[in-house]
Design a protein that fits this description.
The chain is mainly alpha-helical. The chain has a domain of about 200 residues: MetI-like (MetI-like fold), CATH 1.10.3720. About 70% of the residues lie in helices and about 0% in strands.
Length: about 300
């Protein structure tokens, strides 16, 4: 029985992780996106070491432009905001807030979505009906609108914004997991496992779930970019992270008052959001090409 997983694995599975990586790293845009993302994550982790206090206000450093402009200074690489706070320090510390919260939100949504998807696919009838109709109702409401409604009920703040975005992301994982499990349950390798005496729990956890890991990974990358945009949007609207937290959406909101006097204060967090989401999408496209390459050969 030591090779039971190989015997009852889906013969139409994508290539191994090593083969997928070989294909992925030959995609220049995907590897570029991955390199930039890893650099952003590294800078966010090292922000307490390589940057100053993002909350310190300096009345003598009011709206200093970036260092490469004539009025700029090397002491403030990306300039300062209307309160004299270093934008470089706030940008790096904000990365851990925005990206860190988005990563946690997607992880929780993935776990909840997979669990509900397994229940929906396993227990047909009323259980499946209740779960799937609830997910349909959530999906019928635009994600940002639903997030605003949830935050309006729970109250403003980064934690409540994270809860709202989690609720928005769960239905996609539920529907994806449920549909793939139902499809896999009808395949010969699952019937063979049942004939061999494998219990339903083992079939789901040890055989089917590993076989649907690829679409779940792709959905996770899509959800991560969605989470970053929604968290930043809630912060921009004043419903997410509150001042003085250097969350990127909140930084955009604070910079609106001095947008014409200090356009760099708006451009800095805006470009950070754009670059991060763009690179996540590049990585997602690369993963999609690598995982699905076998089906095209």
């Amino acid at each position: 029985m030591g090779n039971s997983h190989q015997i009852y694995s889906n013969p139409n599975l994508p290539q191994s992780a090593l083969s997928n990586w070989v294909i992925f790293r030959h995609d220049r845009s995907a590897t570029f996106g991955l390199a930039v993302l890893l650099s952003i994550f590294l800078l966010a982790i090292l922000s307490p070491i390589i940057s100053g206090d993002p909350y310190i206000q300096d009345a003598t450093a009011h709206l200093i432009p970036p260092s490469w402009q004539p009025q700029g200074t090397p002491d403030f690489l990306l300039g300062t905001d209307i309160l004299g706070r270093d934008l470089f320090s706030r940008l790096l510390n904000g990365a851990s807030l925005t990206i860190g919260t988005a990563t946690l939100v997607v992880t929780i949504a993935l776990l909840i979505g997979v669990a509900l998807g397994v229940l929906s696919a396993t227990f047909r009838g009323p259980v499946q009906l209740i779960i799937m109709r609830t997910m349909d109702i959530i999906l019928a409401i635009p994600s940002l609108v639903l997030s605003i409604i949830v935050v309006a009920i729970l109250g403003t703040g980064l934690v409540n914004a994270g809860i709202a975005v989690t609720l928005v992301l769960v239905p996609n994982f539920v529907r994806l997991t449920s549909s793939y499990i139902i499809e896999e349950l009808s395949k010969p390798y699952v019937h063979a496992a049942r004939l061999d005496g494998a219990k339903q729990e083992r079939i789901l956890l040890k055989i089917i779930l590993p076989n649907i890991a690829a679409p779940l990974i792709l959905q996770t990358t899509i959800s991560l970019s969605t989470a970053i945009i929604d968290i930043a949007a809630l912060g921009f609207l004043g419903l997410g992270a509150q001042a003085p937290l250097p969350e990127w959406g909140n930084m955009l909101s604070e910079a609106r008052a001095s947008m014409y006097a200090s356009p760099w204060a708006v451009a800095t967090p805006g470009l950070a959001i754009l670059l991060t989401v763009f690179c996540i999408n590049l990585v997602g496209d690369g993963l999609n090409s690598a995982i699905n390459s076998k089906s095209r050969t």
